[in-house]
Design goal:
Strand order of the largest sheet: 1-2
Number of helices: 12
Structural class: mainly alpha
Strand content: under 5%
Number of strands: 2
Radius of gyration: 20 Å
Shape: globular
CATH class: Mainly Alpha
CATH architecture: Orthogonal Bundle
């Protein structure tokens, strides 16, 4: 059947893997956006820049940090960067929330969108000035080089890409369990509904909000480190992705944790299949789906009507 359509099984599996990888990034980034919007009611337009910062933090640690500290042989490998980069970028997000965003909570949400959009432009502009737009290579860790061969269809699946999918799904599932099945997660969900009542019960809501923003930013940075060996580390890598991620969030439902995960992975697979059957439509299929969903269900597939 595939041969009649001019498609080989190898090509189909390869594009499904590409779609699954893209969907994993969509899910992680949209999950961070959903957490931030759900608790802060702010559309974090700087999310793409924070994703880029995560990738650059890993690349700088591996290639430039040694020269900066006077020890050219020193470098931070991939596995330490996978932990340190989200912590560093998440801490910078906490600083942004405490010094800037906190002043806007009583204002129209449009002010938060404009502030984060401005931050994204400033961060991207700085890195374009320092590193240009050509992009930098980040090596795949030695333990994840090579591929698994599927002898039945004659296809090799790169180990690193399979690791990216597994790590993304694990982080998304752990985040969902934490938010939906733990006491602290219940506080987070209650804070989205009635923060004043939660504060009356003795919960430190401002600290909760700060932690939620920092965690959302750390998710973006974690995705950036995972993406660094697959895509070139470039100041434009976040802006090229964030528009699609916002479409994913809208389709899944603003603030919906499960909606972000399921929709992100599903749309990645749909995008991959579209490249197989009609490649010209692959760049717009997500936005076509978004338009249809908004017409039929304005709150999104998993969102709640207000």
């Amino acid at each position: 059947m595939f041969e009649l359509l001019g498609i080989t099984p190898q090509g189909l599996v390869a594009q499904l893997l590409v779609g699954l990888i893209n969907g994993s990034f969509y899910a992680m980034l949209s999950l961070g956006l959903a957490i931030i919007f759900g608790l802060l009611n702010i559309i974090n337009f700087s999310h793409g820049a924070q994703y880029m910062l995560g990738a650059f933090a890993a690349w700088i640690g591996a290639t430039q940090l040694g020269a900066w500290i006077g020890n050219p042989e020193f470098s931070i490998g991939y596995w330490p960067a996978l932990v340190l980069s989200p912590l560093l970028i998440g801490a910078s997000g906490i600083v942004i929330e405490r010094t800037m965003l906190r002043r806007l909570y009583h204002l129209d949400p449009l002010y938060g969108l404009l502030l984060t959009f401005g931050l994204a432009l400033v961060i991207e502009g700085m890195f374009r000035h320092w590193y240009g737009i050509s992009g930098e290579n980040y090596e795949v860790p030695e333990s994840l080089t090579g591929a698994f061969r599927l002898e039945g269809i004659g296809l090799a699946l790169p180990k690193y890409r399979l690791w990216v999918v597994a790590a993304s799904l694990a982080v998304c599932f752990a985040s969902w369990v934490f938010i939906e099945r733990t006491k602290l997660g219940a506080y987070l969900r209650a804070g989205t509904e009635n923060p004043a009542l939660l504060q009356a019960f003795g919960v430190n809501v401002p600290l909760l909000i700060t932690a939620a923003y920092g965690y959302g930013v750390a998710l973006a940075a974690f995705a950036g480190v995972l993406a660094a060996p697959i895509f070139q580390v470039s100041p434009l890598m976040g802006s090229n992705l964030i528009i699609v991620v916002f479409a994913v969030v809208v389709i899944g439902g603003m603030g919906s944790i499960m909606g972000s995960i399921v929709t992100g992975i599903g749309l990645g697979l749909i995008e991959g299949l579209t490249k197989v059957f009609y490649a010209q439509a692959s760049d717009v299929v997500v936005f076509v789906i978004m338009a249809i969903v908004l017409l039929l269900r304005p709150a999104g597939l998993f969102g709640r009507e207000t």
